[in-house]
């Protein structure tokens, strides 16, 4: 691989590490994977694309984050107030978002950002790597600080032992709103960064994003093998970048890009089942 | 302090399975009293606790805590003034959070949501408080609590319940799942803490000796009602054998 290809892979990895950081909140902290991601990722992209076209690229990033917050709130509302089962709530929001995303892009299935009134912060190839590093570092630091506050602690405890939190004076429903909103806000921001980076927004671009972000978290965990919030955040970032590097390597080896969803899914499935398989093996060993 | 007036809890109301889990219970518990609660399974002890915390709704009657009618208050609002400990130590603590994070969860909230949960001050305070338990927990502040033994977890849970002394402490068979030695230790700590902080506390137990040797007053539940109420000299004279007569089989 040439240096140029590797750097581009790292840049994309950094963008997807924002996705993994977002999913870290739902998957790891709250212990409830959220399928809204496949929709909210695109919502962020569409929102940023339209505002970038209108001449407000940075506002576009901020608006994407806010749009993601709202997507998360919808899922939290369905789950807590309407008592819809977790995964289904996410699927419902994701499905609805497909139509919403098309509306945001005024009916167009994709939008090109090659001719925009104002350059985005990711426009200059010489600086884009540093800009992305700064963004990811800032997000990770803010998340780390947040998880050490009282509110962050409550959110973590609500995911760790919901019953305990229910019988303490914390409103569990509010914690769900907070967690899903923050998570999807980051996911949407990741989608927005990708759109500005690729100068292209596509309404179908969200398929497989949940699994992709999960793959990043899982690879990172395999590398770090330590628990704790700091390690978890660092693992999500490292894992997302590593995954993108592996992805690029696979492409260079001649795998078609369309196979990558299969690869991500298999990777996640295998990694999650490893502890169970090890247990089975041990059991069988002891019976022999 | 705590006043229940004709409180009933009815399960499956209006169906053929209707059951009065609590049947017009009235009781007054003055401030600083330590009450033990006995009764056979299904007698209504846990429902009694549940209706006080709001986990079970009262179908009839009123509940007043510290001069305030809390009958209609939501569970998470009431729990600001009521601490509760359960039989299972896993119930009261978050396993992946460290000992100090669990304690901070109980202690630091009043400082506002966005302030740092654990500063040097809290660490020092937690260490000092844990030291009084004499279980070596003060050196394990950074350990995820899921790695501790049941007795250690229950001790931390108890500490969490009394760090910000609640108006009322409810102990729901909180030593029943522990080995005898840990159970004795936790009971000892419970007595210490309740006396030191002058807390109003209720303790459910299945162990008659524990029910007799602890606390200032003893309530016995049968079939959703309080059928016996001993305090002072009357309670001191009781023997475990006497109690068996009060249980309906």
UniProtKB/TrEMBL annotation, chain A:
GO terms for cellular component: plasma membrane. Keywords: Cell membrane, Membrane, Transmembrane, Transmembrane helix. GO terms for molecular function: transmembrane transporter activity. The keyword S-adenosyl-L-methionine does not apply. It is found in: Cell membrane. Its main location: membrane. InterPro entries: ABC_transp_permease. The chain crosses the membrane at residues 6-25, 62-80, 87-108, 128-147, 177-197, 203-224, 231-254, 260-277. Pfam families: BPD_transp_2 (PF02653). It is a multi-pass membrane protein. It comes from the Bacteria. PANTHER family: ABC TRANSPORTER PERMEASE PROTEIN YPHD-RELATED-RELATED (PTHR32196), BRANCHED-CHAIN AMINO ACID TRANSPORT SYSTEM, PERMEASE PROTEIN (PTHR32196:SF69). This is ABC transporter permease. It comes from Faecalibaculum rodentium.
């Amino acid at each position: 691989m040439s240096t140029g290809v590797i750097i581009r892979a790292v840049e994309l990895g950094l963008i997807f590490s924002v996705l993994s950081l977002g999913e870290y909140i739902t998957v790891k902290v709250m212990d409830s994977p959220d399928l809204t991601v496949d929709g909210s990722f695109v919502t962020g992209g569409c929102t940023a694309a339209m505002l970038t076209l209108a001449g407000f690229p940075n506002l576009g990033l901020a608006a994407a984050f806010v749009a993601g917050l709202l997507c998360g709130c919808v899922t939290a509302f369905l789950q807590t107030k309407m008592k819809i089962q977790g995964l289904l709530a996410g699927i419902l929001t994701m499905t609805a978002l497909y139509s919403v995303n098309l509306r945001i892009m005024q009916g167009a299935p994709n939008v090109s950002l090659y001719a925009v009134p104002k350059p985005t912060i990711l426009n200059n190839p010489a600086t884009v790597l540093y800009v992305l590093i700064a963004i990811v570092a800032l997000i990770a630091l803010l998340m780390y600080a947040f998880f050490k506050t009282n509110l962050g602690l409550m959110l973590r405890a609500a995911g760790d032992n919901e019953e305990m939190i229910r019988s303490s004076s914390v409103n569990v429903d509010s914690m769900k709103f907070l967690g899903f909103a923050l998570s999807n806000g980051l996911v949407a921001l990741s989608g927005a960064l990708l759109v500005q980076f690729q100068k292209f927004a596509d309404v179908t671009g969200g398929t497989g994003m949940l699994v992709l972000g999960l793959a990043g978290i899982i690879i990172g965990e395999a590398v770090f093998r330590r628990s704790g919030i700091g390690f978890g955040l660092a693992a999500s970032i490292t894992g997302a970048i590593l995954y993108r590097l592996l992805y690029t390597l696979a492409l260079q080896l001649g795998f078609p890009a369309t196979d990558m969803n299969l690869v991500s899914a298999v990777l996640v499935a295998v990694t999650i089942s490893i502890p169970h398989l090890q247990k089975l093996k041990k059991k069988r060993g002891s019976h022999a | 302090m705590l006043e229940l007036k004709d409180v009933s809890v009815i399960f499956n109301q209006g169906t053929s399975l209707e059951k009065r889990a609590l049947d017009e219970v009235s009781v007054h518990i003055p401030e600083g009293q330590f009450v033990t609660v006995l009764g056979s399974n299904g007698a209504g002890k846990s429902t009694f606790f549940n209706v006080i915390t709001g986990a079970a709704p009262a179908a009839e009657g009123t509940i007043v805590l510290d001069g305030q009618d809390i009958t209609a208050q939501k569970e998470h609002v009431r729990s600001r003034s009521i601490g509760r400990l359960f039989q299972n130590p896993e119930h009261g603590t978050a396993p992946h959070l460290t000992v100090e994070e669990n304690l901070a969860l109980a202690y630091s909230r009043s400082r506002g949501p966005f302030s740092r949960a654990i500063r040097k001050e809290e660490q020092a305070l937690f260490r000092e408080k844990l030291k009084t338990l004499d279980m070596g927990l003060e050196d394990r502040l950074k350990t995820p609590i899921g790695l501790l033994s049941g007795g250690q977890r229950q001790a931390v849970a108890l500490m969490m319940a009394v760090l910000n002394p609640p108006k009322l402490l409810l102990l729901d068979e909180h030593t029943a799942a522990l080995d005898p030695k840990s159970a004795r230790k936790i009971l000892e700590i419970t007595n210490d803490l309740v006396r030191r902080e002058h807390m109003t506390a209720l303790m459910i137990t299945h162990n008659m000796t524990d029910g007799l040797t602890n606390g200032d007053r003893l309530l016995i539940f049968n079939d959703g009602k309080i059928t016996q109420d001993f305090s002072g000299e009357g309670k001191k004279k009781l023997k475990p054998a006497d109690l068996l007569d009060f249980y309906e089989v």
